[in-house]
Amino acid sequence: MTGDGNAADLTGAEAKAWLLAFAERVIADADELTELDRKAGDGDFGWNISSALKRGREGLAGIEGEHPAQVFQTVSDAFLASGGTSGPLFGLWFGRLGSGPFAPWDVPELGAAFGRATGAVRRLGKAEVGHKTMVDAMAPATDALTETSTGVWRDAVADAARAARAGADSTGGMIAHRGRASYLGERAQDVLDPGAVAVAWFFECAEGA
Amino acid sequence: MTGDGNAADLTGAEAKAWLLAFAERVIADADELTELDRKAGDGDFGWNISSALKRGREGLAGIEGEHPAQVFQTVSDAFLASGGTSGPLFGLWFGRLGSGPFAPWDVPELGAAFGRATGAVRRLGKAEVGHKTMVDAMAPATDALTETSTGVWRDAVADAARAARAGADSTGGMIAHRGRASYLGERAQDVLDPGAVAVAWFFECAEGA
Amino acid sequence: MSRFFMNERETLVEQALEGLVEAHGGLVDVRTDPLFVTRRVPTTGKVALVSGGGSGHEPLHTGFVGQGMLDAAVPGDVFASPTALQVRAAIQAADTGEGTVMVVKNYTGDVLNFSIAAELLSETHRVEQVLVDDDLATQKEDEGGPGRRGTAAVVAVEKICGAAAEAGAPLDEVRELGRQVVARSATLGVSFEACTNPMTGRRSFDLEPGEMEFGVGIHGERGIETRSTTGAAELVESLVTPLVESVGLRRGDSVLAIVNGLGATHGLELGVAARETRRVLDGRGIGVARSLVGPYVTSLDMKGLSITLTALTDDLVKFWDAPVRTPALVW
Amino acid sequence: MSRFFMNERETLVEQALEGLVEAHGGLVDVRTDPLFVTRRVPTTGKVALVSGGGSGHEPLHTGFVGQGMLDAAVPGDVFASPTALQVRAAIQAADTGEGTVMVVKNYTGDVLNFSIAAELLSETHRVEQVLVDDDLATQKEDEGGPGRRGTAAVVAVEKICGAAAEAGAPLDEVRELGRQVVARSATLGVSFEACTNPMTGRRSFDLEPGEMEFGVGIHGERGIETRSTTGAAELVESLVTPLVESVGLRRGDSVLAIVNGLGATHGLELGVAARETRRVLDGRGIGVARSLVGPYVTSLDMKGLSITLTALTDDLVKFWDAPVRTPALVW
Ligand SMILES: Nc1ncnc2c1ncn2[C@@H]1O[C@H](COP(=O)(O)OP(=O)(O)O)[C@@H](O)[C@H]1O
Ligand SMILES: Nc1ncnc2c1ncn2[C@@H]1O[C@H](COP(=O)(O)OP(=O)(O)O)[C@@H](O)[C@H]1O
Ligand SMILES: [Mg+2]
Ligand SMILES: [Mg+2]
Ligand SMILES: [Mg+2]
Ligand SMILES: [Mg+2]
What we know:
heterotetramer, A: about 0% strand, C: 12 strands, about 25% strand
């Protein structure tokens, strides 16, 4: 919509709107995430992520949104200043996105950026698909982005959102191998991983932005 | 009796016998002193003085007793290595005696030595006659030694012993102005001061030595 | 109610650091937003040495910033990792182009935040990591676990790497030296009374009279076993024996012994512990070439102590002896 | 049962000193029979500076032996004066002909034993005394009493007299400098939790939750008043205000502030205290020219702290800044 480049490419303004929508969603529904972390962790996930995104929203208010990298970098800083396990991992994810091109992103660039970002989270978190973490949503979404045949960023991200949602849903039934939920073993098997759910929300929020 | 000088002078051997007799008396009757300190202080005086004199006895066993100064110095060191208030004060008293002449002492020398010793205790302890301390026995005994007309040390010390005993007795009825007994005020008025009693014993022990 | 002396919990760490600068303004400086401590006068032309971790362990790490030791220290909240943003900012401030060695104690949060900071800087900075995991009490057979905790050996790592960096050693060499110190070190701790939570005033665990907690770390967690208290000689023997085995010390070897107070342990007690450490090692023909005795890696007001042994080489001795000028360590 | 780490009570102090030498053998040496601590290498041709007192206050005094500070320190048993015999031996060892200044904290037993030692040496040695009585909490109107206790100002006295002696100042000058520091200093302490007796494990007094003891000394005795705990800002204000009055500080004056931990007080707490001290004095236009922050004069494992202010002159600053090399203080 806004954006000076090709409408098919993700502009800074669009990225900014996307992130603001994500922040709004998370802040509104933080309790839902907290409830999941209460069942399978220490119950602070909603607070951790929404306080990071409140800071992120303030940061976004102060920038132009010249290109997606600047937008993601701003959100990254907000997460990096957070505690918990999710704060630095999301900070890394957005931080890697923040080192993408300083211009609107076409779909291949978008896929490449998410590929680097998700790769870094997998490496640092030592988490693979099936470990019941945010990676269970990040990885299929990233695959969808890199493998898509569309050249329009909104369509590509919509594919990614569907994949992320399926990935998040798949964590119900998994036994956790990473994070606090891993201490609970089978007792938290039925609970969705809040990190993965948040990732699904993230991709879904591109739609209205 | 033993001694190579004039029988009227105090020899080292006589001084050693005197101090050994004093040690024996104190060690035997330590409980009596402790009981007084229990009533008017913290109940450790018997232990303080008898452990000092046990060390002193060991020290005396290791020396010839060439002259009174050497003997008093040895006992001084034993007291100086002791705790409590009485340990260092007796250590000072005997220490000042220990800086007397390195030869048998005639009566004027004896009086002068005790004069310096008692003066030092009064000065350092800030204690005067009537303050209900060891000085109440030391001071009149010292006066007796310096004012005596006899030239025979045993007679002079016998005078001093009578004066020390009277001084010690006078502490019954005094309100203490120094040491722990001063915290008790009138409540310990009837109790004899154990330090003064020990000084009386000291002079009395010359008789058999 | 807490008996912990402070204003609000939120400002505790930052205000304490203002006090550090008050006392050692000639040596260190504090940066805020994000919070970290640097040398008063940054040193250029050398490898930067950066460390950090939760607060409550002072003087670690902020007290070790200065000539011959750290270039920057990054404090988290009490017993909580600093954020990756703090770490990134500290590295950016300290690294003057020769690269950075991060000294990280092996705790999930610390490892994550330091690693992420390094990862984020990977395109602009050369950042290497020395992971300190000296605590024998957390030795496990399983490969997948978090591994041994990092405790007082971190002081040896920071001192020795600091000296090497100051002497101009290149990045790889400083990192390898640090890893060598870790590989040659082991620590065991014991607690006579748990630390108290600054907010609630509650002890993190309770001991009956006559009990002590063997194998504690530095976050108030229980150790591996509750034992009956013994005299100093016997207790030091029980700490030192497994260390000697773990480090593989043999007759004729020489060590650095760090006798570390965990917070409320008195100097008299640490003195006795140092004496007993020497005695036990003497008895095995192992020489205590250097010792460091004091509260260097604390756990708030825990009563207890840890003993660290580091097998020395001539090189390590040389770097240990090199001059150091920090708030907590000067020679 | 005691949670104090030691072997037997009888050997505690001596074994702790063996540990001191273990850690700082390059600086100090311990003599036994009688027990005292000297510099590793005695310094000749200067006034000797000797101090001492009961143990349980470490690093005071034994940690302050070394170049630029004490020549010898004489430790008593825990909270008990050393004997006159120890003091005499220490003076004999330290005095190389230029005379000795004894730094004595104002307690009956210490004063007696140090004075007697000096008296016994009066024919062979020139011995002068600096009596330290900085504790405002024990200020009384009556002339006959024991006077104010000596607490943390003793560190300033030892540092400044030590520097003057090292610089070659003659006996009278070193003594006068010490007396000047005492006259310009005042201290107040507060406790959040009493210390525990090493033998019985009992606290020397009890505080209810939310209470603190104002005006404590360093022997576990109660202070002048039990008050409600407050935040750091308010508490430091209540300590510093009477000090400012007592020392007679005015706008434009500059001070040395000693923020001293009493044993189990954490570095974070002392940091906050140092910050607040500066803030309160700033507000009155008084400059904190120097500060010393740490556990320097402890009371076993007491939780609490004291603040000492010393009004500075250019001379005092010069001697404070002069190099010092002791186990507990190096610059
Ligand atoms: N090793 C890991 N790799 C990737 N994600 C992880 C890992 N550990 C935990 N997570 C994610 O972090 C989320 C929990 O975050 P949060 O509540 O902030 O952390 P904490 O467990 O420290 O309280 C989990 O739902 C999971 O998605
Ligand atoms: N200031 C003083 N001057 C002289 N003698 C004193 C003084 N204070 C106490 N004494 C003597 O010391 C004796 C008590 O000695 P002791 O029990 O060893 O001391 P403490 O009170 O330290 O336990 C008293 O009976 C008194 O004679
Ligand atoms: Mg959580
Ligand atoms: Mg958490
Ligand atoms: Mg007594
Ligand atoms: Mg007594």
